[in-house]
């Protein structure tokens, strides 16, 4: 995963808004993650079309943080999700 | 209702009918008593009520859910409700066109059981020639673009072949592999002498699975579920009684686990008679082992009481005759000797014939309890 990767959700994973907690959940077989708002912001942008770079840029603007700091966090998060088989870099 | 008791997963046991006769089936021994199946409209209503309660995951299972010819209508409703829907199947009987219809209707995941790595051994456990067909169906699952989960229940006859099972799963392109040791309740308890592995077998298999998990990280999720009999402490069965799961039997009983309706003295309500929300909130069967108040010692004062919730009620009942006892797999249980004895017996190898799941063998057995032989637990969403 690097700035030019185009991440997308793995075929087994699906986002769903949860009315009870007012949060997004990432659902996959027999499991799920309740996402904090920033994680949801990242995963909603993992469409397989956008690069990590452009996701970082947009989120840095949205949250008013410096892009390098945002990039570190986004990359760490995406790598964790990739290791768990929930996010893939699009071919 | 406090969040501590929110159901995330509905396990819809659509039927107890099944062409397979697996010797560790998770259906109750007396499954024939629950053959008045819910109709399509009732299941659809139940899905809506479950979603309203907070359920986000739906497991369509059985028995063999494919024997229901209204499965399409059920998948359609589940998708309309945005439930993550997992079809848990033996793959028998399934035509490719039907699988393609499920894909079009929005089914999320297909889980197929494989009993072993070659036809003779696999078919021997299933009690039916089915292995080659299963492989063909697994390949359709991938061709049609579904994520594929393979589930293999482990026991002394196949535990030494975990490496081959992993290789088969890789060859089939599985996204997820569940290596789930049999748990010794229900049919698996009836066959315990033939199925319970030795500790050495288990530790070798665990190491192999661990290596595979590392090697396949990011490509295939590899789960290895230990048999309770070789754990020091019990698992949080169903994540605690009535906390995260709703299981509904084919005839509509709303249960905290697959076999709760076989425990004596508990009353469970049917979705035919009451709304699901009411049942979840205050049916006596659900209240019986919720929370901590029911616990005996050593659970009551144990540091682990909110980690394992006292373990499995069915296992406690089956081994001690008391559903409210500490799960004997816990090394702190006064009944733990029962487990040690069974483990000891497993080191003496004597061929033991299987008792296959069937109505006939069900009728000849005096026990009225069932079990969780096939690992079908799921975890609740964890907070990120």
Averaging pLDDT over every residue of chain A, what do you get? 94
Largest sheet of chain B: 9 strands, mixed
What is the ordering of alpha helices and beta strands of chain B? EHEHEHEHHEHEHHHEEEHHHHHHE
Helicity of chain A, as a percent range: 40-55%
**Rg over C-alpha atoms of chain A, rounded to the nearest angstrom:** 13 Å
Identify the overall geometry of chain B: globular
Percentage of residues in strands of chain A:
15-25%
Biggest sheet details of chain A:
3 strands, antiparallel
- Chains forming the largest contact: A-B, 23 and 33 residues
| N-end to C-end Cα span of chain B | 23 Å
Class inferred from helices and paired strands of chain B: alpha/beta
Measured between the Cα atoms of the first and last residue of chain A, the distance is: 12 Å
What is the multimeric organization of the chains shown?
Answer: heterodimer
Q: Spans of chain B with pLDDT under 50 lasting ≥5 residues?
A: 365-384
Q: Calculate the mean pLDDT score of chain B and round it.
A: 92
* Strand order, sheet with most strands of chain B: 7-6-5-4-3-2-1-8-9
Number of strands of chain A: 5
Per DSSP, the total helix count of chain B is 15
Helices and strands, with pairings:
The complex is a heterodimer of chains A (91) and B (384).
Chain A: E1 7-9, E2 14-18, E3 23-28, E4 31-34, H1 37-44, H2 52-63, H3 67-83, E5 87-89
Antiparallel strand pairs in A: 1-5, 2-3, 3-4
Helix pairs in contact in A: 2-3
Chain B: E1 9-13, H1 40-53, E2 57-61, H2 71-80, E3 84-89, H3 96-105, E4 109-113, H4 119-126, H5 131-143, E5 148-154, H6 162-171, E6 176-181, H7 186-190, H8 192-195, H9 199-215, E7 221-225, E8 245-248, E9 254-255, H10 276-282, H11 284-288, H12 305-308, H13 313-320, H14 337-346, H15 359-363, E10 382-383
Parallel strand pairs in B: 1-2, 1-8, 2-3, 3-4, 4-5, 5-6, 6-7
Antiparallel strand pairs in B: 8-9
């Amino acid at each position: 995963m690097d700035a030019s990767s185009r991440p997308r959700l793995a075929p087994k994973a699906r986002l769903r808004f949860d009315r009870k907690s007012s949060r997004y959940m990432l659902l996959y077989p027999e499991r799920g993650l309740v996402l904090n708002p920033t994680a949801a912001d990242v995963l909603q942008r993992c469409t397989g079309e956008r690069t990590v770079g452009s996701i970082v840029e947009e989120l840095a603007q949205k949250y008013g943080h410096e892009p390098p700091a945002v990039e570190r966090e986004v990359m760490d998060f995406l790598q964790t999700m990739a290791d768990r088989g929930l996010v893939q870099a699009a071919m | 209702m406090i969040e501590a008791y929110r159901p995330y997963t509905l396990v819809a046991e659509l039927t107890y009918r099944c062409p397979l006769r697996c010797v560790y089936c998770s259906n109750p021994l007396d499954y024939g008593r629950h053959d008045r199946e819910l109709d399509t409209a009732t299941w659809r209503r139940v899905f809506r009520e479950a979603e309203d309660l907070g359920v986000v995951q739906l497991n369509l299972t059985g028995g063999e859910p494919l024997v229901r010819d209204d499965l399409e209508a059920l998948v359609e409703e589940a998708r309309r409700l945005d439930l993550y829907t997992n079809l848990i199947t033996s793959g028998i009987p399934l035509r490719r066109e039907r699988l393609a219809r499920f894909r079009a209707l929005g089914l999320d995941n297909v889980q197929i059981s494989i009993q072993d790595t070659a036809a003779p051994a696999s078919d021997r456990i299933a009690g039916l020639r089915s292995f080659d067909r299963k492989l063909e169906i697994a390949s359709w699952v991938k061709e049609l673009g579904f994520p594929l989960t393979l589930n293999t229940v482990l026991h002394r006859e196949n535990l030494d072949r975990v490496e081959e099972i992993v290789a088969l799963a890789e060859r089939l392109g599985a996204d997820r592999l569940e290596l789930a040791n049999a748990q010794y309740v229900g049919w698996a308890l009836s066959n315990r002498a033939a199925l319970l592995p030795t500790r050495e077998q288990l530790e070798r298999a665990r190491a192999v699975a661990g290596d595979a998990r590392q090697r396949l990280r990011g490509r295939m999720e590899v789960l290895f579920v230990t048999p309770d009999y070789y754990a020091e402490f019990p698992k949080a069965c169903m994540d605690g009684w009535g906390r995260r799961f709703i299981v509904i039997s084919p005839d509509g009983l709303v249960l905290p686990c697959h076999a709760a309706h076989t425990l004596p003295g508990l009353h469970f309500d049917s979705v035919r008679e009451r709304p699901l929300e009411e049942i979840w909130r205050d049916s006596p069967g659900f209240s019986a082992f919720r929370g901590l108040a029911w616990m005996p010692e050593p659970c009551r004062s144990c540091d682990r009481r909110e980690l394992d919730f006292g373990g499995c009620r069915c296992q406690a009942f089956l081994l001690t005759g008391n559903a409210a006892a500490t799960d004997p797999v816990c090394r702190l249980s006064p009944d733990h000797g029962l487990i040690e004895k069974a483990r000891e017996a497993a080191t003496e190898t004597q061929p033991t014939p299987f008792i296959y799941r069937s109505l006939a063998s069900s009728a000849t057995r005096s026990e009225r309890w069932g079990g969780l032989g096939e690992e079908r637990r799921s975890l609740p969403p964890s907070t990120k």
